[in-house]
Amino acid sequence: MSWRPTYRSSKFRNVYGKVANREHCFDGIPITKNVHDNHFCAVNSKFLGVVTESAGGGSFIVIPLSQAGRLDSHYPKVCGHQGNVLDIKWNPFFENIIASCSEDTSVSDPQPLFYINILIWNLETGEPVKMIDCHTDVILSMSFNTDGSLLATSCKDKKLRVLEPRSGRVLQVTFLSPSN
């Protein structure tokens, strides 16, 4: 019996990409270098948001997807943070709402109605609903599931927690270990 490696053949082996025409591309966008491990852009079915380089605080730009091509160097920027913008996300339910977070520990939308620290908020009223206080150190990352019923957080104490955001109850705690 001879040894032969078995490889699964890909059904995409004869598929080739095609470069988009220049009129369908976005050009001249000053993309930031300060987002570290976060995304520098966010897109939905209407808009493209890109974190940009700026002096004296953080900013990002919002471009309608129908406006492809070269971007004017004086294109308006969304400003409002004292520190660099770290991440931006579109509201999954209302396509015209975008939120940004910054090194100045604030989260806001382009016309800030309120600033958010680590609290669970009612976004319609701008009122805090619940303070999550089960962490022993700085929260590094957090993410809701698609319907908002669960919240996962990672903390500097090397623990991953799954919570019910409305009650603040911790459902599960897992110790994070480095990949080897």
TrEMBL record:
Residue ranges that the Swiss-Prot or TrEMBL entry lists as coiled coil: none
PROSITE patterns assigned to the protein according to its UniProt record, in alphabetical order: WD_REPEATS_2 (PS50082)
Pfam families documented for this protein: DUF1899, WD40
Keyword Repeat in annotation: yes
Domain DUF1899: 5-69
InterPro entries to which the protein is assigned, alphabetical: Coronin (IPR015505), DUF1899 (IPR015048), WD40/YVTN_repeat-like_dom_sf (IPR015943), WD40_repeat_dom_sf (IPR036322), WD40_rpt (IPR001680)
Ranges of the WD repeats in the UniProt entry: 132-173
Keyword list, A-Z: Repeat, WD repeat
The keyword Acetylation is assigned to this record: no
UniProt family annotation: Belongs to the WD repeat coronin family.
The name this protein goes by in its record: Coronin
Gene encoding the protein: CORO2B
